[in-house]
Amino acid sequence: MPVLVASDLDRTLIYSTGALALTMPDARAPRLLCVEVHESKPLSYMTETAAGLLTELGDAAVFVPTTTRTRKQYERINLPGPAPRYAICANGGHLLVDGVSDPDWHARVTARLADECASLAEVRDHLMETADPLWVRKHRVAEDLFAYLVVERELLPEDWVKELAVWAENRGWTVSLQGRKVYAVPKPLTKSAAVRELARRTGADLTLAAGDSLLDADLLLAADQGWRPGHGELADAEWTAPAISPLPERGVLAGERILREFLKATRTTTP
């Protein structure tokens, strides 16, 4: 039976320059591989060692990139190793099969959102009305499914985020702060639902997962075994669960460690 490995990408397996956390002396820093270019500029990296581990993992398990990114943002990433057959984008709103969104899955997701939570328009209007242009740089809607703001983090009032979370909770939405982005996401829009669907389709006997943000908590809880890095919202909240292993590594070296753990668990399971 195949092993299904569902991993968040940003700040879990791949890292922007500001998230690398290279605290060691320059001469001891790991060699880096650029895996994403945006507007002709390098944007995201992993260590060369991690790239080799990911290539091994792609041959040993069903590796599923699992991200809150839109499909367009995901397509900018050029991961090493075999091209993944499946990918999960827009926090579970799109399930890609050979790069194409499964229309039946997307229809099921959008129908559930319409039934169970406030509309995207209501949430977007609230963000526009309450967010201060002093610290907001961009308002964005992703795939007509959820909204997010790009902010100046040092100017962002903590109380505003807390108040937004309470407001959203009462309308069936959740709020997550990741780096310079504040996400407002419908509660039924989850990575875990898409991962369960893929486990059913592939007949996976074991599901492994990793992630760093509050939007990854449901993904980790849905897995048989999971890992979180030493940075991010989950680490800051000291979040854990019985099958979840908190790792001490922070930054790009955490991505390397996560891939080692995925491979170890896969090889232990696979005869």
Report on this model:
- This protein is α/β, with parallel strands linked by helices.
- The chain has two domains: 3-110 and 189-269, HAD superfamily/HAD-like (Rossmann fold); 118-186, Gyrase A, domain 2, CATH 3.30.1360.
- It has nine helices and 15 strands.
- The strands form four sheets. Strands 5-1-13-14-15 form a five-stranded parallel beta sheet, with helices on both faces. A four-stranded antiparallel beta sheet has the order 9-10-12-11.
- A hairpin with a 4-residue loop joins strand 6 (86-89) and strand 7.
- The longest helix has 18 residues, at 252-269.
- The chain is globular, with a radius of gyration of 18 Å.
- The model has no long low-confidence stretch (mean pLDDT 96).
Compact description:
This protein has 271 residues and is of the alpha/beta class.
How many strand units? 15
- The whole-number mean of residue pLDDT values reads 96
The overall number of domains is 2
Give the distance, in angstroms, between the N- and C-terminal Cα atoms. 10 Å
Give the overall form.
globular
Low-confidence stretches: none
The amount of beta strand, in percent, is 25-35%
What CATH architecture of the largest domain would you give? 3-Layer(aba) Sandwich
Order of helices and strands: EEEEHEHEEEHHEEHEEHEHEHEH
Instruction: Enter the CATH topology name of the largest domain.
Output: Rossmann fold
